[in-house]
Every structure is written in C-alpha cells, then in structure tokens.
Amino acid sequence: MRKVVLPCKLALACLLFAACVTINVYFPAAAAEKAADQIIDQVTGSSPATTSKTPPQTRSAPAPQTLLRTVAAAILESLVPAAHAQGGANLDVDSPEVRAITASMTQRFQQLEKYFASGAVGYTADGLVEVRDQGAVPLPERAAVKRLVADRAALYGAIAKANGHPEWEADIRQTFARRWVARAKPGWYYQDGGAWKQK
After folding, report:
1. Centroid of chain to Cα 81
2. Are the C-beta atoms of residues 132 and 196 closer than 8 Å to each other?
3. What distance separates the 2 farthest-apart alpha carbons in the chain?
4. Is the alpha carbon torsion for 134, 138, 139, 145 positive or negative?
5. pLDDT per residue over 123-141, tens digit each?
6. pTM of the predicted model as reported, rounded to 2 decimal places
7. What pLDDT, in 10s, does the model give residues 167-192?
8. Long-range CB contacts for residues 175-178, cutoff 8 Å, separation at least 24
9. Which DSSP symbol is given to 188?
10. Residue 55: pLDDT band by 50, 70, 90 thresholds?
C-alpha cells in the first residue's frame, strides 16, 4: 500500500506545481547557432562542416528512483508544455525580408572577401563588419567598401521580427557575432575585448 501512496503524492505535487507555473519563452540558443551557420554558409559559399558521429551508447535499466523522476517529469511535461514548444525549437530564417537581406549579402561577399584577406575590414564584437584599416583601402574604393559591409544589423532585426520576438535581437546579434568569427578564415581580423585580433 505504501508503494502506491508515494506515486499518488508525487502526481498530486506535480499537479499543484503545474498550476503555479508561469511559462516563459526562452531564447533558443542552439537553434540560433544552427540558423547562423546556415546563413553564414549561404553568404560565404561554404559547405556545412561535417559533424563526427558518436558511437551508440548502451542503455541499462533505470534505477527505481530515476524511473520515478522520469515518470514525474513526463506527467509535468504533459501538464505544462515546455516553453520551447510554445516559442518554437527552431528559428525561422525563411521570411521574405530575411531571404532578401541574405541574398544581398551573398551577392556582395565575393567583393568583400578581398578586404577581409587584406585586413582592411574585420568582424566586430557586435556582429557587424567594420573598416579596420582605412589605409589598406584605396581612396577610390572606400565608399564602395562602406556599402559592402551594410545589412548585418538589419538581418538580426529581421530574424527577431520573423520569429515574433523583437526582444531576441540582441541575443541573435551576439550568436551571429560568435559564429562569424568561428567560421572566419585564418588571417581575418575580429574584435575581442575592444582590440583587433587576427585569427
């Protein structure tokens, strides 16, 4: 009889907890990284990096306490759906505005690439591209370079808007800032701690 009472108490506690839960929609960081990589690959013409497969792991039978926790979590999940289910586990990067900005960035990237290679431009800590060394850009090309580095701020705002969460723009910008640097070619410049560094 005692074995039956404990699960019933646990189920009741889960129900009471579920009644008091406020659902918050959290920024989907993993989905944002995946979306950033997808857009960066498109813009730069890179192929996605291959992921190494991990060997399958054998599973042993769960301990009674683990089984009880698993059941309790399943009950709670059915009563209070996870916040990411409400907000979407994926980040939508397929809106017309996002597609247009991405296409524009893709068209300009080949011209911009030589300025990355020369060290004239680099990735900023806030996900933008900035002229790092004006002297490395010939005078007649300076106005063109400024046009080539446009659109990134608009991209982050468009992605946040497309997902119905304008408050995510700063998180999206930070995610892209990290991913641009991670996927930059050796020798390209980026900002870190207020200083320019070479990858």
Report:
1. 22
2. yes
3. 87
4. negative
5. 999 999 999 999 999 999 9
6. 0.69
7. 999 999 999 999 999 999 999 999 99
8. 175/29, 175/32, 175/33, 175/36, 176/36, 176/39, 176/40, 176/127, 176/152, 177/123, 177/124, 177/125, 177/126, 177/127
9. -
10. very low
Beta-bridge mates of residue 191: 196
> How many whole angstroms separate alpha carbon 145 and alpha carbon 130?
9
Element (H, E) at 147: helix 142-148
> 8: part of which helix (H) or strand (E)?
helix 2-20
The full 3-state SS of 59-113, as one line of letters, equals CCCCCHHHHHHHHHHHHHHHHCCCHHHHHCCCCCCCCHHHHHHHHHHHHHHHHHH
Question: Locate tokens 């809106």: which residue?
Answer: 95
Contact 102, 89 (CB under 8 A): no
Q: Are strands 121-123 and 189-192 parallel, antiparallel or unpaired?
A: parallel
In this structure, what token pair is assigned to residue 76?
């709670």
The model's confidence at residue 75, banded by pLDDT at 50, 70 and 90, is low
Contact 196, 131 (CB under 8 A): no
